[in-house]
């Protein structure tokens, strides 16, 4: 390495350049190839001094080397590449701003052996790089392919003078051809430098050919994009021109301004839809906006969707009501078995709608367990009124916009379910079923139950405004009917707008009749059978009900019979059997072993075991209460996943037991020596409610006193600390559950005697229904033994009070 000095070294030209010192000029973002003429602009003082030093030589040679970083103002040896070009200075011109324009011609590739950095200029000792070449067939082929690629590149980009093709096509040297092509290509500095550094001519041409292929692909892609953009632009301009021309022609031909095409079609639809009032103003305003927009714009698509909804709504289209009570009664009798009181209330509802001038009156709400026919009853109402029917499933709805609609602030907004259903049926006065109204939930997106208040209020829904329509649509002519499994979760304001009609579960006889009259004929026809191919006896249906489908409704029964039909069809197809007569002993062949086993029925008298009755959304159920005692310190343990209300009932029963221990013949201090464990089986199922109070009390007394409870006895009723038995709900469902479980006697609150009218007579004949008002009465019934009767002090006091005030009560 030559250390920097303050003097310019004596540079003497030599015939052989190897080892000779030449002045050096670093170049920014420029690579000069041998035999190429290049114009350079030089402004740095060191570079100008190096150029002037080169002009002092007879051969006017200078070394040109590219900088690694173009932004470097004062480069050093590490900042320049080690391979450059020895070039001859052909012309030099000083410009007024001090810059020097120089024209150089590359001579040969050289490598830098040593670089001398003086205060005035750069100098370098160089060694020429002798190019190696070959003249084989592959090299010639490579030359021809490279020339063809370059020709295609020139035609594609159109940035290179076509005359350059003449210079390239006549070159037969691979190294020379590679240098020229690399000069024309817009390559990066590193790629051009690498091309300069490759000594073997064939290898250099292969490298340049690879770069040329890449640039050619990019040029073709750029040309495709350019052509596509130009085509779209020309298409848009052409459509705009034709549209403006068409508008002018239409204005000239139609003096009243009426246009044909999309706008005119919407105007015809608006007139035909009989839209009026604010809704008409909104629709026409949106139509005017659409008329002024480009058809391809996204907002135009939103407006079209809005207009389609508005013209699709039945603003003036109605079904003609035909309310004939005799016809309606026949329809209800044909479609449904039993449910006499429900049918009577529906007929009253239809009679009021026939005579009343008010379009909408009471909102009926059918409440009952699944499978009892709530949805089919609403369909029968629609058929009896000669109206269209629509069903809105509200289960899981938690967004207020599902009822009121989405605002037109984004693409994809739509009307609420009410408006969508009316648009779908195509009439302004359909019967709309609000199915599972109790299963709506509230969250951060709003409360749909509050939105439903406006829908069901006759004083508000005349001007019901859906957020999507942004205009009022009257719902007064719509007949809304709701259904629910339970009304416990319905908010009180919404509950007040409903007239509840409770539908209890079916008895075994009713299920048999429903199966024979409705389910079996429907399923036989559905599965491609006829009455001769499959005959199901009534005894068979009764066995299916008793051993496979213990439920309040008939869905499980229908599924079981459908399973039988499928197996019979498969049997007929395989064996060509002509007919199947399904007897009771053949049921297990088609449905497998019984699902309801006999050991689940109520056992004989047991100590600490009582059968209670519970109500669920799926109907009535029997509830087993078990109590065990063990030595301890009076702890009361409750298990079986009991709710807070049921736990409180158990605590109340335990308190009553302790306060009346001596009257019941129990050691008063029993709690000091016994622990009591109360358990209700099926612990995975949550249980809650007050009606298990008397069952818990009897089970506790039985366990502590070791008295067995009477067999085939079930009970329901809420208790107080004083032993009074309070009213409960769902008495009919609970009685039917007891009948299904082969219970013989049912104890219920005396205040529920009014509900006995809802229970069919044949059910009353098969069950002993015992009303009670106090726990003392329950004791004598539950622990009944021949010749004995429990009569507690509280019961005697109650009887004396009744006798004392009997005249006043009368």
Can you walk me through this structure?
The structure is a single chain. With 810 residues, this protein is an alpha/beta fold. The protein has 27 helices and 26 strands. The strands form seven sheets. Strands 19-20-18-17-22-25-26 form a seven-stranded mixed beta sheet. It has a five-stranded mixed beta barrel with strand order 1-3-4-5-6. A five-stranded parallel beta sheet has the order 8-9-12-7-13, with helices on both faces. β10 (464-466) and β11 form a beta hairpin. α7 (262-273) packs parallel to α9 (298-312), α17 packs across α18 and α21 (644-659) packs across α22. It is elongated, with a radius of gyration of 50 Å. The model is unreliable at 1-17, 255-259 and 785-810 (pLDDT under 50).
Task: Tell me the layout of helices and strands.
Layout: E1 21-27, E2 37-42, H1 45-55, E3 61-66, E4 83-94, E5 100-117, E6 122-128, H2 137-157, H3 164-169, H4 174-184, H5 189-197, H6 201-253, H7 262-273, H8 277-291, H9 298-312, H10 325-335, H11 340-355, E7 363-367, H12 374-385, E8 389-393, H13 401-404, H14 417-425, E9 431-435, H15 448-456, E10 464-466, E11 471-473, E12 479-484, H16 492-496, E13 498-502, H17 508-526, E14 534-536, H18 538-547, H19 555-575, E15 580-582, H20 587-591, E16 606-607, E17 609-616, E18 619-631, E19 636-639, H21 644-659, E20 674-679, H22 693-705, E21 708-709, E22 713-715, E23 718-719, E24 725-726, H23 731-740, E25 745-749, H24 761-766, E26 768-772, H25 775-782, H26 793-804, H27 806-809
Parallel strand pairs: 1-3, 7-12, 7-13, 8-9, 9-12, 14-15, 17-22, 19-20, 22-25, 25-26
Antiparallel strand pairs: 1-6, 2-5, 3-4, 4-5, 5-6, 10-11, 16-21, 17-18, 18-20, 23-24
Helix pairs in contact: 2-6, 4-6, 7-8, 7-9, 8-9, 10-11, 10-12, 17-18, 17-19, 21-22
């Amino acid at each position: 390495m030559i250390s920097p000095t303050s003097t310019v070294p004596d540079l003497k030209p030599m015939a052989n350049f190897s080892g000779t010192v030449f002045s050096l000029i670093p170049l920014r973002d420029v690579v000069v190839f041998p035999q190429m003429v290049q114009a350079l602009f030089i402004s740095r003082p060191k570079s100008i001094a190096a150029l002037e030093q080169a002009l002092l030589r007879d051969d006017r040679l200078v070394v040109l080397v590219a900088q690694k970083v173009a932004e470097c103002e004062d480069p050093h040896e590490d900042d320049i590449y080690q391979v450059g070009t020895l070039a001859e200075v052909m012309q030099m011109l000083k410009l007024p701003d001090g810059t020097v324009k120089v024209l150089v011609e590359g001579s040969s590739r050289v490598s830098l052996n040593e670089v001398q950095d003086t205060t005035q200029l750069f100098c370098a000792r160089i060694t020429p790089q002798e190019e190696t070449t070959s003249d084989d067939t592959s090299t010639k082929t490579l030359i021809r392919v490279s020339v063809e690629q370059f020709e295609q590149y020139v035609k594609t980009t159109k940035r290179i003078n076509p005359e350059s093709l003449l210079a390239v096509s006549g070159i037969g040297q691979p190294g020379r051809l590679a240098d020229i092509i690399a000069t024309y290509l817009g390559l990066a500095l590193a790629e051009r430098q690498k091309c300069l550094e490759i000594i073997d001519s064939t290898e250099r041409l292969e490298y340049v050919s690879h770069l040329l292929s890449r640039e050619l692909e990019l040029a073709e892609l750029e040309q495709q994009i350019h052509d596509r953009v130009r085509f779209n632009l020309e298409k848009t301009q052409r459509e705009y021109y034709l549209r403006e021309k068409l508008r002018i022609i239409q204005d000239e031909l139609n003096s009243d301004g009426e246009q044909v095409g999309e706008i005119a079609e919407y105007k015809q639809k608006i007139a035909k839809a009989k839209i009026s009032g604010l809704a008409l103003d909104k629709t026409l305003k949106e139509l005017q906006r659409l008329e002024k927009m480009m058809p391809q714009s996204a907002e135009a698509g939103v407006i079209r969707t809005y207009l389609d909804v508005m013209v699709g709504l039945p603003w003036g289209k109605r079904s003609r009501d035909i309310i004939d009570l005799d016809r309606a009664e026949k329809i209800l009798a044909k479609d449904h078995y039993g449910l006499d009181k429900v049918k009577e209330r529906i007929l009253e509802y239809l009679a009021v709608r026939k005579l009343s001038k008010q379009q909408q009156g009471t909102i009926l709400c059918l409440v009952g367990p699944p499978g009892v026919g709530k949805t089919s009853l609403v369909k029968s109402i629609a058929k009896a009124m000669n109206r269209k029917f629509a069903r809105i499933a509200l289960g899981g709805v938690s967004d207020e916009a599902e009822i009121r609609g989405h605002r037109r602030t984004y693409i994809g907004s739509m009307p609420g379910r009410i408006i969508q259903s009316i648009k779908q049926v195509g009439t302004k006065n359909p019967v709309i079923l609000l199915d599972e109204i109790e299963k709506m939930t509230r969250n951060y997106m709003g409360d749909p139950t509050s939105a439903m208040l406006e829908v069901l209020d006759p004083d508000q829904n005349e001007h019901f405004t859906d957020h999507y329509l942004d205009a009022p649509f009257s719902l007064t002519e719509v007949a809304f009917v709701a259904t629910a499994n339970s009304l416990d979760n319905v908010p009180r304001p919404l509950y007040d707008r409903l007239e509840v009609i409770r539908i209890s579960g079916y008895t075994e006889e009713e299920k048999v009749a429903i199966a024979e009259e409705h389910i079996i004929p429907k399923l036989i026809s559905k599965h491609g059978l006829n009455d001769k191919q499959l005959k199901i006896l009534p005894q068979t249906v009764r066995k299916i009900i008793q051993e496979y489908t213990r439920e309040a409704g008939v869905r499980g029964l229908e599924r079981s019979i459908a399973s039988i039909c499928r197996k019979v069809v498969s049997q007929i197809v395989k064996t060509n059997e002509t007919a199947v007569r399904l007897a009771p002993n053949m049921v297990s062949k088609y449905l497998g072993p019984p699902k309801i086993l006999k050991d689940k029925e109520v056992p004989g008298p047991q100590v600490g075991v009582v059968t209670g009755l519970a109500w669920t959304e799926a109907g009535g159920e029997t509830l087993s209460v078990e109590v065990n005692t063990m030595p301890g310190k009076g702890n009361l343990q409750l298990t079986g996943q009991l709710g807070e209300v049921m736990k409180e009932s158990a605590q109340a029963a335990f308190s009553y037991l302790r306060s009346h221990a001596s009257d019941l013949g129990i050691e008063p201090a029993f709690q000091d020596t016994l622990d009591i464990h109360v358990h209700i089986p099926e612990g995975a199922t949550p249980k809650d409610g007050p009606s298990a109070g008397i069952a818990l009390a009897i089970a506790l007394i039985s366990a502590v006193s070791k008295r067995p409870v009477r067999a085939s006895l079930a009970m329901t009723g809420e208790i107080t600390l004083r032993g009074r038995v309070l009213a409960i709900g769902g008495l009919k469902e609970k009685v039917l559950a007891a009948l299904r479980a082969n219970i013989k006697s049912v104890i219920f609150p005396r205040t529920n005697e009014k509900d006995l009218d809802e229970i069919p007579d044949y059910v009353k004949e098969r069950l002993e229904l015992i009303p009670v008002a106090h726990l003392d009465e329950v004791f004598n019934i539950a622990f009944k033994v021949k010749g004995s009767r429990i009569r507690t002090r509280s019961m005697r006091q109650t009887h004396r009070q009744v006798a004392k005030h009997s005249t006043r009560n009368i």
